[in-house]
Amino acid sequence: MRCPFCSHPDTAVVDSREADDGAIIRRRRRCLSCDKRFTTYEKVELRMPVLVKKNGARADYDRDKLAGSFKLALRKREVPVDKVDEAIARIEEKLLGLAEREVATQRVGEMVMRELKRLDKIAYIRFASVYRNFEDPGEFEEAVAEVLPPRRGRKG
Fold first, then answer.
1. pTM of the shown model
2. Where are the domains of the chain?
3. What's the number of CA atoms in the CB half-sphere (13 Å) around residue 12?
């Protein structure tokens, strides 16, 4: 760490303490050249990947936009808000876990569909119909078949 007073490149850590419930480490440092002391703070910085749209345009990750997609799909559905927050958190964990600088929006859309399928089948169908841009009733039937339980023996 470079000294802010004399710009000497060598400093010594005199004291380290946790701050903000362990999310930040506060360090007191002493310059080995001018002997002045200063404080630095160290924290983890996680960066979400940039999203790459179908047309190649890039956009910063926006949690509110993701939450809006869930809200629209789940409109008039009785799904607890905490379950939606957990689903969004799982998507964010997966995005961070990819450790990629850029991720295609299609990949995020697939993650959203998986989470909606777990939360609410109707919301999944709603989202899939828009996301996959269904062109005919057959595509809609295929999406519905994905969420229907397998049929047992038929009567008749």
1. 0.66
2. 11-43, 50-147
3. 7
